[in-house]
Amino acid sequence: MEDLLNKAETQEYFINMGPQHPSTHGVLRLMLTLDGEIIKKVEPHLGYIHRSIEKMSEKDSYYQMVHLTDRMDYLSCHINNEAVCLAIEKGLQLEIPDRVKYIRTIISELTRLSSHQLWWGVMGMDLGAITTFLYGFRDREMITDIFEETCGARLTMNYNVPGGLMFDIHPNFQKRTKDFIKHFKKKLPEYDELLSGNIIFTERTKDIGYLSKEDAISYGVTGPSGRGSGFACDVRKRIPYSAYDKVEFKEIIYTEGDSFARYKVRMDEMKESLYIIEQLIDNIPEGDFKAKTKAVIKLPDGEYYQRVETARGELGVYIISDNKKNPYRVKYRSPGFSNLSALDTMARGGKIADLVAMMSTLDLVIPDIDR
Amino acid sequence: MIKAIINYFKEIFTACRTLITGMKVTGYYFFHPKEIITQQYPENRATLQMFDRFRGEVVLLHDENNEHKCTGCSACEIACPNGSIEIISKKEIDPETSKPKKAIDKFVYHLSMCTFCNLCILACPTDAIKMSKSFEHSVYDRSKLTKVLNKPGSKIMAGIKE
Question: How many domains are there within chain A?
Fold first, then answer.
């Protein structure tokens, strides 16, 4: 028998995963080179949902280009909007009222929570547990209701404008947010009961998809995926923006570097987000919800860069201005793109069935990768 | 040897326990149907109410005399990032001063191009347009998504100036 196995020739073969695959969460095409069920190489192919957001921003005015970023990482749209607005405000050297900073921070954290809730639900579903999806969406519904009441939309909110906010918060905003915190604090242990301890889940995530700290840094893997490998990269802590320098919170870091560590980072981050909102929600200062800006914004000549921490990692906005009413060049450094580049290193030598779990813990949003 | 056997059974036991822990949550909601928040759409269409700021589609507000506030200044058309608003204006003789005055002939709104960013509403100097709460936009033909917002025979309200 042994002889026979040695004689038998194996052949590497090639398989397409996507672009239409339910667990790639969008139109991502992975070209897999396999030996049996062992992954030899993963080659992501992009371009199926390219909308040229960067180029479109060049023809738009500074007010108009904000709403396009909703469509990049649609699960952390408010944070994307905030990044663009902060970059423009940096160029204008505008003094932003404290009220705006506080509200932006609260809504950013709510966005992060809703993103992580959706990720948790989808993570379970990718591994075959449809129950988690429904539980994640149940709690997310409360946040989308808050958004809908204050911002006017559930997903593509476009609540930020250069200089401040589109409108003031709704009178019900504080009450609803506090209700949500009370509700979600009770429900968060359920998440752990349902999935975190589940033997099928832990067997499929522990020691799988290992990414070392060195690799995480060299690929530029940021956000919860990077922090799962022990890379301290939280922009909120390193270079605070908005009201993050006024609040206390822990930077969650796990050093294991496997899929389960990345999962745990996000679970703990939800608790930290709740803690941040709790500190701010009662202390929103009075004042204007928007600084005075001109009807046509012209940024002075120069280059402006702003980084923020989205739910997926570090988003960088780079604007070059030539003193006209629209930017000369806009570049977004999206977290999803860098995170995806590490997938090959993580997946090599692993099983094809675990690839879905690895992609899930990287929390890929395809429109963010392929702007 | 015995230790290995004990460990083996221990593992099976803990594995089963983790599964039952998860099932407990499911069982709780099975016996507490009141905590389920599912809405039965479209059965609840009569009672379903959107929030005030909900961005459904752009509407031009008319009062009971079929008058609107739009002066045809095109501020919304300029503010729109996607070109979903087109203002076709005409010259009209003002009855008070008997001089020619700009007025809207057609306020064309392409719903299919709209991204609901609310910039046109912010740009309007006379608060003539508003986002409505309707959200059921699906139609069988794309041409139906191009709408003329000013009603036939409508005219501008008295006293509204650019």
Answer: 1
